[in-house]
Amino acid sequence: MNRDKHIRKSSLIVAAAALGFGITWAVGGGCSNGGTSATSNAQKGTGDCPPNTGTQVAGRDGGTTTVTLPAGASLITDGQQTFRFDTFGDEVFWGDTIKLHQAIEGAANGGVGPGVSPAAALQLGLKVDVDALPPAIVDGLKAGTVDLNDPATTLALLRLNAVVGVTGIFDGTDASPSPTSGPMKSMGIQCALCHSTVDDSFAAGIGHRRDGWANRDLNVGAIIAAAPDLSVVANLLGVDQATVRTVLNAWGPGKFDAELLLDGKGFRPDGKTAATLIPPAFGLAGINLHTWTGWGSVPYWNAFVAVLEMHGVGSFFDPRLDDATKFPVAAKNHFGHVVVDEAHDRVTPKLPGLHLYQMALTAPTPAAGSFDTAAADRGDKLFASKAKCVTCHVEPLTTEPGWNMHTPAEVGVDDFQANRAPDNRYRTSPLHGLFTHTKGGFYHDGRFATLLDVVNHYDTLMSLGLSEQEKSDVVEYLKSL
Ligand code: HEC
Ligand code: HEC
After folding, report:
1. Residue nearest to atom 42 of ligand 2 (CA)
2. Which residues, including other chains, have CB under 8 Å from residue 310's CB and lie 6 or more apart?
3. What is the C-alpha to C-alpha distance for residues 320 and 422, in angstroms, rounded to an integer?
């Protein structure tokens, strides 16, 4: 494991050096940067931090290493801004079209229905960035004088830009880029909505941002289903709005269906939701194909998501979506040929920074004591020998360098999800930082509830003959990654 970490460290230094950035590794334990620090993967521990000399971009959860970049490394910090705050103009969809902001406001505040109180928002898995809260609100929260059951408080949090991954757009006349006073007139979403959590340092769901962590609490389907006008989605899919809501409400926490608007499949043949788990967006450097089913590279998928899923304003190309048998909805609507002229394209210019930022987000390391070290060392050896894991999860990447794809039969699962993607295969999942997304289960649909279930599956599939002790050692190793 030490060798593994060493290689990961040096390769990031080399990569950054090649990009022309100065880079230093600040080594120290347990320092948590609060305030307005740009630290991602905020650390669990508290303690006094040395002053920041540059902009901290990527952190490590175990409190061991931090990348510190000089102020000039603007592309990565631009990417962090994009990841956290850029809607790519998608308010045209989330607010103006499906009017989700009205459901958040509630009738009492000019919208519709009961509205979404902070308590309800936290229940839906939304997270609050404590660093965006002024001291008066923090004190109010501590004293219990802030009403968490009033949707007006949610609007106040949105004005402060404190709801992770959601931007409220208000009708005021104050500052650019978006007014924060006046009534709410629209809203947009960001990458951070699904791919960030907080460290719960203040309270459950309220804390410092952890960029790249999969939000397995977030009930995306229930949130979208609350939008008052889903006619545009219903028309695309050729069904009524009630059917769209049935599909969305079946997703459950931690899941989203990136293929629904391509093939219109809401459910699998076994009747379960067709949605997949939200994966982390850290630890992706060096990996060729991304998503559960290997749609493409990180910049490919970023453009795909920003344009086709978030409905941002930008160009996107993929003639594979012209396959009318596989992607009837996408083919009919020419989703593989979205052209926006340069003056209005709000996605394409952001792709370089967004790409580099994701490359800089290393997987966090598990806290000491969260696994049995001796057992993990034995599991490390088994992983590379008797258990045959490295035949696919090649170390230190933990996925294949090169073409990292497998047929459903090779991993012993059905082909439903694989067949919803161009290559009809599953991508070998990278395994670093597994401890951050144990909620919701494992594999693309969470079919294995625990890591031991995963290991048992391989033991049967590949006739490994692992003893119970060996299985548990492999599990401890997985927890240590
Ligand atoms: C509504 C939730 C949601 C939002 C918003 C979202 N994603 Fe994702 N993301 C997912 C899901 C679900 C997947 C898995 C999709 C699949 O495999 O079909 C995914 C997959 C990914 C992957 C592949 C990870 C891997 O293991 O290879 C990357 C990278 C990624 N998203 C980046 C982004 C970026 C960048 C943005 C913003 C432009 C973004 N996502 C916005 C839900 C979301
Ligand atoms: C034939 C190639 C192959 C072998 C061998 C293999 N894996 Fe996998 N592994 C995959 C693929 C492909 C996936 C993704 C499956 C999916 O998306 O449903 C995966 C997924 C996983 C996951 C789930 C990750 C997540 O984020 O949910 C774990 C854990 C895992 N493998 C551990 C192991 C262990 C431990 C071994 C050895 C006992 C092993 N794998 C052997 C290809 C392989």
Report:
1. 428
2. 87, 88, 90, 93, 189, 190
3. 7
Q: Which residues, at least 6 apart from 10, have a Cβ–Cβ distance to it below 8 Å?
A: none
**pLDDT above 70: residue 250:** yes
Q: Which two tokens stand for residue 17?
A: 């050096």
- Kindly identify the ligand whose nearest atom is closest to the C-alpha of 286: 1
Q: Please tell me the distance from the alpha carbon of residue 64 to that of residue 83, in angstroms, as a whole number.
A: 24
Rounded CA gap, 343 and 352, in Å? 17
SS3 163: strand
Closest by CA to 84, choosing from 163, 2, 199, 172, is 163
Say if residue 328's pLDDT is above 80. Answer: yes
Q: Using an 8 Å Cβ cutoff, are 265 and 380 in contact?
A: no
Please report which ligand is nearest the Cα atom of 216.
1
Distance 268 CA to ligand 2 centre (A): 21
Contact yes or no for 68/33 (Cβ under 8 A)? no
Probe residue for ligand 1, chosen from 305, 327, 397, 428 as the CB with the greatest number of ligand atoms within 8 Å:
305
Q: How many residues does the chain have?
A: 481
Atom of ligand 1 nearest to the CA of 312: 38
Question: Using CA atoms, how far apart are residues 47 and 36, in angstroms rounded to an integer?
Answer: 16
| Whether residue 46 has pLDDT greater than 70 | no
Residue-by-residue DSSP string for 159-170: HTT-BTTEEEEE
CA distance 160 to 170: 11
Helices (H), 144-252: 151-159, 192-195, 220-225, 231-237, 241-249
Q: Which ligand is nearest to the CA of 440?
A: 2
Residue with tokens 């459903």: 408
Dig out the tokens for 113 from the structure: 């229905």
Q: Per residue in 110-150, pLDDT tens? A: 999 999 999 999 999 999 999 999 999 999 999 999 999 99
Whole-angstrom distance, CA of residue 167 vs CA of residue 310: 13
Helix axis angle, 468-480 relative to 373-383, nearest 10°? 100
299 prior amide bond cis, ω within 30: no
> Distance between CA atoms of 251 and 325, rounded to whole angstroms?
24
Q: How far apart are CA 237 and CA 245, in angstroms?
A: 12
CA distance 300 to 293: 13
The 10 Å Cβ neighbour count of residue 18 is 8
Question: Using omega within 30 degrees of 0 as the cis cutoff, is the peptide bond preceding 430 cis?
Answer: no
Cα 86 to Cα 310: distance, rounded to the nearest angstrom:
11
